[in-house]
Please model this.
Amino acid sequence: MWNHDPDGAFGTVGDSDINVGSDLGYSEESDTYFFAAVEHFVPMVPNLRVEVASLEQVGSATSLVFNGVSVSGDSFTGLDTVDAIAYWRILDNWANFDIGLNLRKLDAEFSIDSESISVSETIPMIYLAAQFDLPFTGLSVGADINHISYSGIKYQDVRLRALYEVGVIGFEAGIKTTTIELDDVDNINADLEFTGLMAGAYIHF
Model:
């Protein structure tokens, strides 16, 4: 689970930007993420991680302009992602380091009142991850980043987390920040950031 707090603005090309806090009243929300990873010992063949995440914010608008129309009413912003990450483990001992490529399927929706615009893109991103194990404790700390900047899109996820494993059961907690900038992508401009605490459990075997 990820508890995220929004900041920034979005709008349609040619209209004034709409602030998600002061104009729409977006605030903290909680959403879920799921992942599965397969690692092996075959040289040169990448490992695979698949991750599915959703992010939703709801609010309301009064006398704004969106998609060239004066709007008042309910607002919804959603970012649904599916990541397919092929990565190689460069270091594999008490210090682990991964590098790879993430193909992210992004489905985004921006709606206010009766006006709605959808963005659907498959985005290649650089994937980097590091994890440091504390010997004999089951504890580790780590970070990972997905990043891309090209052709009107700047998109980045950063996670910092601590992990604890007992047998095959693991727990993680940390902080995650997602930033997304869109410059005339499917008629949407956006400069948004979502930051908050995350926590989860997993099975490792």
